[in-house]
Amino acid sequence: MTFKTRLLPGAVFFCDGGILELAGKHLVLGLTGGIACYKIAELTRLLIKAGATVQIVMTEAATQFITPVTMQALSGRPVYTSQWDARMPNNMPHIDLSREADVIVIAPASTDFIAKIAHGRCDDLLSTLVIARDCPLLVVPAMNRQMWQNPATQRNVAQIRADGVEVLGPDSGSQACGEVGDGRMIEPEAAFEAICAFFQPKIMRGQRVLITAGPTFEPLDPVRGITNRSSGKMGFALARAAAQAGADVHLVAGPVSLPTPWGVYREDVQTAQQMHDAVMAATPDADVFIAVAAVADWRVDHVSEHKIKKAAGQPLPAFNFVENPDILATVAKLSNPPYCVGFAAESGDLQLNGMEKRKRKGVPLLIGNIGQLTFGRDDNEVVLFDESGTTPLPRADKQELARTLIAEIAKRAPRTGGPLLS
Ligand code: CTP
């Protein structure tokens, strides 16, 4: 089955300092019977907050778990539950609702509903709407682990995948029935992330991207250490944008309290040496390396085993510092390096220092932060330094800026993966 291409360029709108990532997108969100229906209240709220319009359609079974009144209040639109609903002027809700949609999302998708999709059965509004669609279909399964493992279910899931349906999840863990295993619905935040990713052009499909993010922490003793004000937001935003662009992303993160972006493999480290070791182990598999971390340049040569005590009349503690490895420069100097991108935090002349730093690190692209107040903020302003000179980019929300930067990197990095766009 072929669908008309709906992967639109990532138009993003701003609102109250946040970004409306799904502005202009219209989704049909179909609920089928399952306890995970409660998660769809939150998913709907996230979609609406991101600027999407959401048309809720519910099966009869879904209405046993959450009421159409709740879903109407959250989506701000009347809910459809019946094939015989006379509200559509031509009395064909299955055609009209599906024609308006950029995507149909079935969440939660029950065992029975997946079987219906696999076999092309349509005996209610939602299943009829699915078979009458001319847009992509995303399915978010939710069921008991035995139902999920049943060979019939596995056959049906394989069949719908082969038919071009995207299946999101399921998760593993404790289930409403008290059992533990595969089958629970992915969390609403994860479903939201996957829907956002669905709308992004896959300009990095097949590329393997290694990213460092956050600060490092260099211990002085068991309780104290040296770190910096990096929040990790820019690096995590780049990881999210690269994953949304179809890349296989490995994120090496210093100590930050940020959630892992959807679809990103994360490795947590503390010190610069640990970050170096993690990066060197992952580099042979990487096509692109983006060093965003604010790596501590020095560490003490001897970390005290016990907490350093202050005692009256004693001299202040003195530390000997040794240099940490320069991770970016080390990777850039490898005989067959990935495409390397550095970041620069400067307090002096950015233009001069940026050009010099790019040469010193031996990287094709360096991104300079304009101003010193970027740490912890939600927006940023940068300038690109490459072989053709400098390109300033306008101040933007870090997530939006990350998309622009991933597009700039995708333009420059040699392609090793599959086709550019799906
Ligand atoms: N970097 C790194 N390893 C280090 C230091 C920096 O990988 N030990 C990377 C950073 O992730 C960033 C780039 O190098 O991409 C520049 O970092 P920055 O702190 O701006 O520069 P430094 O190399 O530390 O030089 P200086 O502090 O003298 O400006």
UniProtKB/TrEMBL annotation:
Pathway, per record: Cofactor biosynthesis; coenzyme A biosynthesis; CoA from (R)-pantothenate: step 2/5; Cofactor biosynthesis; coenzyme A biosynthesis; CoA from (R)-pantothenate: step 3/5
Superkingdom of the source species: Bacteria
Annotated family: In the N-terminal section; belongs to the HFCD (homo-oligomeric flavin containing Cys decarboxylase) superfamily. In the C-terminal section; belongs to the PPC synthetase family.
Gene Ontology CC, one term: phosphopantothenoylcysteine decarboxylase complex
Cited PANTHER family: HOMO-OLIGOMERIC FLAVIN CONTAINING CYS DECARBOXYLASE FAMILY, PHOSPHOPANTOTHENOYLCYSTEINE DECARBOXYLASE
Gene name, Swiss-Prot/TrEMBL: coaBC
Protein name: Coenzyme A biosynthesis bifunctional protein CoaBC
Annotated region (Phosphopantothenate--cysteine ligase), positions in chain: 209-422
